[in-house]
Amino acid sequence: MKLGQIGEFGLIDRLKERVFRPDKKVVTGIGDDAAAFRVSSRELLLVTTDVLVERVHFDRRIHSFWQIGWRAMVANVSDIAAMGGLPRYALVSICLPETMSVEAVEQLYEGMQIAADEYHLQIIGGDTVSSLRDMAVSIVLCGQVEEKSLVTRGGAQAGDLICVTGELGGSQAGLAMLQLMSSKRKGDVLPLPVEKWSAVRDRHLQPRARLREARLLAKGGVVNAMIDVSDGLAGEVGHIAEESSVGAEIKEAQIPIGSETRRIARHLGVPVLDLALCGGEDFELVFTIPAADAHRTAEQIIGETGTAVSIIGKVLPAEDGVVLVSPRGKRRPMLTEGYRHF
Amino acid sequence: MKLGQIGEFGLIDRLKERVFRPDKKVVTGIGDDAAAFRVSSRELLLVTTDVLVERVHFDRRIHSFWQIGWRAMVANVSDIAAMGGLPRYALVSICLPETMSVEAVEQLYEGMQIAADEYHLQIIGGDTVSSLRDMAVSIVLCGQVEEKSLVTRGGAQAGDLICVTGELGGSQAGLAMLQLMSSKRKGDVLPLPVEKWSAVRDRHLQPRARLREARLLAKGGVVNAMIDVSDGLAGEVGHIAEESSVGAEIKEAQIPIGSETRRIARHLGVPVLDLALCGGEDFELVFTIPAADAHRTAEQIIGETGTAVSIIGKVLPAEDGVVLVSPRGKRRPMLTEGYRHF
Fold this sequence. Notes:
The structure is a homodimer.
Chain A: H1 3-18, E1 26-28, E2 35-38, E3 43-53, H2 65-82, E4 86-96, H3 102-118, E5 122-130, E6 136-146, E7 161-165, H4 170-183, H5 198-205, H6 211-220, E8 225-228, H7 233-244, E9 246-251, H8 259-268, H9 272-278, E10 285-289, H10 291-305, E11 309-317, E12 322-325, E13 331-333
Parallel strand pairs in A: 4-5, 9-12
Antiparallel strand pairs in A: 1-2, 2-3, 3-6, 4-6, 7-10, 7-11, 8-10, 9-11, 12-13
């Protein structure tokens, strides 16, 4: 059987049964944004790792080396944030073809270093190996979280409201426009002037992690489950549903989508909802919270950080499944596959 | 400037100056087998990562998937051992082409899992991403060490004796024979029957980490510096010399080399010393120890583990450089580049 037939999540399910058998010190293992284990009486260590592969996750025609470095670091910070933790120490491994210039590698590291400064973490080590063709960047990020502040994907309760920070689909919209630009032939006219989509371009090229928002949510103590949007809203809600053994309904009309993203969807002729549901790398937070606390928490987040929080749906019992509700109230199953690697 | 011109270690030196600025909680950062930082009053967390890339670090014609998994895990265990620590939790990231079979991936994980059981650690998470052609395996291994038992590359003192566990060059000798076998055409005669080199074949295909020996050494409290042999003895002694700001002399005649390795070197027409000095992946330990403690420590290690310890040289003041001493007493500089990735 080829990997293409069972997919990434099918593979992970098979491996979970056979390989992963965590002990009592392991608080969360495979199947969350980061692994968490106990290192002292009150603190947990968080460890996450992401591998970015050239031509799969980035494209040198679109992303500068600086941006590749920045994006790789932010993706990991976002994973630690989604667990309620603070990022602390990073190890960076890079596979490089020997034809690459030293200056390019330094720009890559500079992007990572500026992101590290921004999120108050340190790059303390790593590994550099040669590759024959494609470049790959792997970051291991260690973080810390007080045991009582840990938030996993697995704590959602039926009746919780489902919330999301900021806006969705922007990164995917920006990427689509950048791809259009890079494949544009000389003389082609680009009908949408760049000032009409510069916000989503920047959002794609230099995303931000919702670290402050996540810490406020985690320390507030009322969030039951949280995840960051790296593979699209549908997939992330699916992960929460699976890990929490619950169902969920998401109201299409409540999904926060910016005006630039809507304009680009029209321009490209794609349903704008697809960008939000399936477009990855927005790095917003999706979280569930008891209904009684939702409005107060949303106000606190916007008051302290300026970041909007939208209530987009509700956690249901598992037997109700994961559904999308149209503006007219029509219900349909939400495809929760996320970005498929195979 | 291309990477090929400055090499891996030149690149790391440049990056050290520009990127890595560790704080007080970081006990060792880049430039050791693992990074170490404080997580409680007496304990340090160790984190190491290694990326193995197809066609650079392994070859599917020579290594089974099971062996690729085993070797990747053992290489990381060896790094934690060399710091004096115990491996605890691993995260595994794999880049896979979608044409790979599910069974192959499961064998790969099984190799890692059996190694994990052997060294009493747990695989708790990771990431699976697609690659377009080559496979890559990246393992992050977290370990723990009491602060007083930590051993780095940086503590060697002039006058220390330099010791090594087991025998060197065997893994490289085994690999050379395996490569010869895999390129053999039908009808070619392999002049050396496999029973004459099966020990080094196994040594290459299923290496072991010197975890027990390293822990005994670290807890004994007399070892000043330690490193594992992943890139050849010359390179590892060079790392200790650089990080400790010392020189060293290695007596050629004292380097422990097994009879199979000597036979293969003759058979292949290569100097046997090259296999020991430049051949990687033996995963033996090189350590320095005050002269007064060396013999007692060597006896303790062999008594408790059955593993021989050879005294192969002496730590010198930095101005004496790093030299090899021939059986007739002739001194020449030792090339300490190790395996060059670029």
